[in-house]
Amino acid sequence: MRHRKRGRRLGRSASHRKAMLKNLASSLLLTERDEDEYLDDNAPKVKGRVVTTLHKAKEVRPLIEKCVTIARKSLQFERDSEQYATSAQRATDEYRTWRKSEDWKKWAEARGPVVAARRRCVQLLGDKHAVTVLFDKVAPRFEDRPGGYTRILRLATPRLGDAGERAILEFVGISDRTSTKSVKPAFDMSDEDGATDKKIVDDASDSDASDSDADADAAAADDAGENAIDEPKKSE
Mean of the pLDDT values across residues 68-77? Predict the structure, then answer.
């Protein structure tokens, strides 16, 4: 019985499983890199998306959500510390003067939670480059979103070799499917079109009137002919 044993083993030992989940989470974050950062032109087709098995995606999703939440909550502290920061380069006289001032102490105190958050994410992910991408690109995108940063989509085709059930793990907000309502057609006609249509209607009514007059004349002629034929018979 598996009482008080949460999570899936995935056919691996504890150390192997933790390392695999760290690498998978880092791989998802590293897909958000710029294209010029790839050394071998191995850029992903879609940023913020990885394809893995369904069970691995369900196991690594809480880890990614936790890291994004930690980075998201540290953004406000980072903005508060910018008012005490300096734009001087290191090893310059201006920078040395700033290090000895009270602004540096306030900056270090205000930036303490940011440093603690980055260290915690490095501990969870094990990749400093992935943590940099997390804090610089991913976290600002979800600053106003309280959770639910990723989604899992099952794929119809299984994995070749072992027929494992595959799934897509991706960040929300990039490939969202939006439904749009159809636009109601407008039947309002312009003045020119209305005038043209009115002229066509008038011509059609005139032609109908002329046709009706011609039919009346033809009927009258037929009646006259019948009367002319009947008169001699009456005289006899």
Answer: 95
How many domains does the chain divide into? 2
Which CATH number characterizes residue 151's domain?
3.90.1030.10
Separation between Cα atoms, residue 8 and residue 11, nearest integer Å: 8
CA distance 20 to 60: 9
> Amino acid letter at 186?
A
Element (H, E) at 166: strand 166-171
The C-alpha atoms of residue 39 and residue 37 are separated, in whole angstroms, by 6
Tokens, residue 53: 């098995």
2 phi/psi in degrees, rounded to 5: -105, 50
- 152 shares a domain with 45: yes
Out of 102-116, 132-146, 168-182, 198-212, which region has the weakest mean confidence (pLDDT)? 198-212
